[in-house]
């Protein structure tokens, strides 16, 4: 494929998960693209929109995932963008069972509908770098070909493996459809509100004792850009999407001006389970695994095929800090001032000692 | 992530990260200039202590603010250079009195695969080898060590290993480092070498499946054999309590003259005399197509093994007394 891909804007696009932050922004962005005729947002009825105003130009349909089949055929849909994924159980919308229902069963039903849709040309599926699992024997950097060595402990990681399995099956049965799987690193940005952004906004941040995971982030705007390009251009295959570069967890916490509190790993896993049982906290074993093993992916395939490089992990994180720095304890300015104070103090003492002698 | 051979921060160097010089007069003025403050006491040019304090404080501030770079493997060159290497250098110079020869065989820039013999119950030889390369080589090269996955299972140890440039011994990581022009260090004997009894000292063990050879072949990297003498005597292993090792899920449980009898004191390595010799590199660029040919891989691994074993014998003749000066 040529870099940048051939441009083939679709006529009718269906976007799932539009009551969520990512889905709403993608749908709004596609609706603003004059090359696309129609954008239809689909969501399950019980979900209340988190984002108002964005979806003015998007036609919205509330149907069960099982009823999407009729919709795809009736409206001559040629592109489906599947974004309806929950990365953590949402206390307002049910527990882990509801999350799995939405992620796994929802995807299965959607792909079954897609398989029967005669006019479908393109399928774009949101996945995650959690697809690589977490193992101590893992290579430091994952390419798209790396197979997971161990099934992850976290629910989201397992869902992602299931979802990618369904997409593989779909590819075999409908080789005529351009199927794009985007493995996103955790989103971060000035406005995005995710599990990780809430974590880094805590004044005192729990970490795992003796572990300093290597992390990568993806700026939310770059995620939109890659999704948009996936819809208007043809990019068949699986792609890692992450900001180049790496931040160690301790480094990220220091840059955010927070204070890390190391916790023993078995204790943290227990605490996570307890918090889950008591019904609050959206942190799960997915996060614990991420913070034990870290996760770094190779994005050279994305750069080659999309001719696009997301802003670096450090730049994306800086953007997040600028928007959230309000409660930081240790800012760079304060540290520099403290450094100057100590240095001046030592110099004065030494100068005084010299004068006396 | 960047493609092979380039570094996104633009500080791609030949043979080492461009770390700010440890002590420089500009370091003293740096925080003041950044902050718009003026020092209450005038800088005293030539005052060594003042500069040391200032650069130490600047280092602390950079660490606390997260103002440093780690690469995709977790390597933190600033921390390695400022903290780990100075500590290891004490061990390397004062305790083990290490002598290095054959450094001209290690390239000043570009990739190289350094293959050594493993010994010593605790794998200090890997750390001493990386100290030798950083301390004695004119290009002050960092050695990127490949470690067993046991190292990366252990908390704290795993992070020290990553921060000093290590990663899991697997072909994807080895090839990625070599394509990036790094100097990679590998010990193909693995635990068979580290955990052998003192009676078998300086007898090279089996070289596994030769995965290191295929990594070198696939990337066309020269293989530099290195013989390390001195490691075997630091914790002479008299016996291996296998049931206890199995219980603790360790590859072996050592009994040395001092461990476990003296408790934590038994962790102090005996002050043996160390000799390290790098051998002439074995070029592999012409064999890139045979990376999957088991015969070529086996022959090359054997050649490396023979070279190291011979060099070990030569070095041992030069060192009649293991604890000599």
UniProtKB/TrEMBL annotation, chain B:
Keywords: Acyltransferase, Transferase. SMART domains: PlsC. InterPro entries: P_lipid/glycerol_AcTrfase_prd (IPR016676), Plipid/glycerol_acylTrfase (IPR002123). The keyword Transferase applies. Residues 24-33 have a biased composition (Low complexity). It holds the Pfam family Acyltransferase. GO terms for molecular function: acyltransferase activity. It comes from the Bacteria. Residues 112-231 form the Phospholipid/glycerol acyltransferase domain. Signal peptide: none annotated. Residues 1-48 are annotated as: Disordered. This is Glycerol acyltransferase. GO terms for cellular component: membrane. It comes from Micromonospora sonchi. Residues 1-15 have a biased composition (Basic and acidic residues).
């Amino acid at each position: 494929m040529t870099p940048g891909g051939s441009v083939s804007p679709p006529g009718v696009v269906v976007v799932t998960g539009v009551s969520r932050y990512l889905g709403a922004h993608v749908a709004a962005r596609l609706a603003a693209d004059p090359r696309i005729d129609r954008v239809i947002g689909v969501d399950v009825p019980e979900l209340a929109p988190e984002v108002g105003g964005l979806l003015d130009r998007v036609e919205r349909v509330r149907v069960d995932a099982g009823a999407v089949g009729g919709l795809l055929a009736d409206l001559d849909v040629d592109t489906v963008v599947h974004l309806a994924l929950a990365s953590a159980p949402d206390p307002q919308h049910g527990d882990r069972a509801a999350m799995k229902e939405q992620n796994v069963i929802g995807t299965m039903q959607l792909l079954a509908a897609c398989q029967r849709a005669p006019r479908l040309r393109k399928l774009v599926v949101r996945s995650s770098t959690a697809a690589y699992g977490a193992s101590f024997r893992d290579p430091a950097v994952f390419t798209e070909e790396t197979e997971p060595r161990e099934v992850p402990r976290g629910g989201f990681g397992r869902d992602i493996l299931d979802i990618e399995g369904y997409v593989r099956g779909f590819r075999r049965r409908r080789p005529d459809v351009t199927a794009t799987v985007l493995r996103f690193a955790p989103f971060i940005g000035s406005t995005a509100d995710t599990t990780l952004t809430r974590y880094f906004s805590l004044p005192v941040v729990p970490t795992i004792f003796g572990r300093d995971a290597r992390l990568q982030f993806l700026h939310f705007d770059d995620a939109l850009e890659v999704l948009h390009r996936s819809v208007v251009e043809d990019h068949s295959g699986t792609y890692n999407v992450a900001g180049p570069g790496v931040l160690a967890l301790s480094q990220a916490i220091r840059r955010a001006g927070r204070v890390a509190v190391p916790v023993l790993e078995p204790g943290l896993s227990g605490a996570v389970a307890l918090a889950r049982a008591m019904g609050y906290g959206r942190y799960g074993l997915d996060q614990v695994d991420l913070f034990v093993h870290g996760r770094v992916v190779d994005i050279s395939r994305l750069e080659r095929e999309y001719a696009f490089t997301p802003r670096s992990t450090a730049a994306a994180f800086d953007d997040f800090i600028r928007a959230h720095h309000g409660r930081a304890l240790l800012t760079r300015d304060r540290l520099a001032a403290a450094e100057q104070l100590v240095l001046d103090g030592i110099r004065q003492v030494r100068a005084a000692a010299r004068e006396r002698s | 992530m960047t493609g092979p051979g380039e570094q996104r921060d633009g500080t791609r160097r030949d043979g080492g990260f461009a770390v700010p010089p440890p002590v420089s007069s500009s370091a003293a003025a740096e925080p003041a200039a950044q902050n718009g403050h003026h020092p209450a006491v005038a800088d005293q040019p030539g005052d060594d202590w003042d500069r040391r304090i200032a650069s130490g404080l600047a280092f602390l501030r950079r660490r606390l603010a997260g103002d440093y770079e780690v690469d995709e493997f977790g390597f933190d060159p600033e921390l390695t250079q400022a903290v780990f290497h100075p500590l290891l250098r004490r061990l390397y110079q004062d305790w083990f009195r290490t002598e290095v020869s054959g450094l001209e065989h290690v390239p000043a820039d570009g990739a190289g695969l350094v293959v050594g013999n493993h010994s010593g119950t605790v794998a200090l030889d890997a750390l001493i080898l990386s100290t030798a390369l950083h301390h004695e080589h004119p290009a002050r090269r960092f050695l990127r060590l490949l470690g067993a996955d046991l190292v990366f299972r252990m908390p704290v140890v795993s992070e020290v290993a990553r921060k000093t440039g290590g990663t899991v011994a697997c072909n994807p990581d080895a090839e990625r480092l070599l394509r990036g022009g790094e100097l990679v260090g590998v010990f193909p004997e693995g635990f068979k070498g580290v955990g052998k009894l003192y009676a078998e000292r300086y007898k090279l063990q089996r070289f596994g499946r030769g995965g290191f050879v295929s990594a070198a072949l696939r990337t066309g990297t020269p293989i530099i054999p290195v013989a390390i003498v001195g490691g075997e005597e630091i914790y002479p292993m008299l016996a291996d309590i296998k049931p206890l090792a199995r219980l603790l899920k360790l590859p072996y449980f050592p009994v040395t003259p001092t461990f476990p009898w003296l408790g934590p004191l038994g962790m102090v390595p005996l002050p043996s005399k160390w000799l390290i010799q790098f051998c002439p590199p074995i070029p592999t660029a012409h064999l890139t197509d045979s990376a999957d040919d088991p015969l070529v891989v086996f022959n090359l691994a054997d050649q490396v093994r023979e070279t190291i074993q011979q060099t070990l014998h030569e070095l041992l003749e030069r060192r009649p007394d293991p604890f000599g000066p």
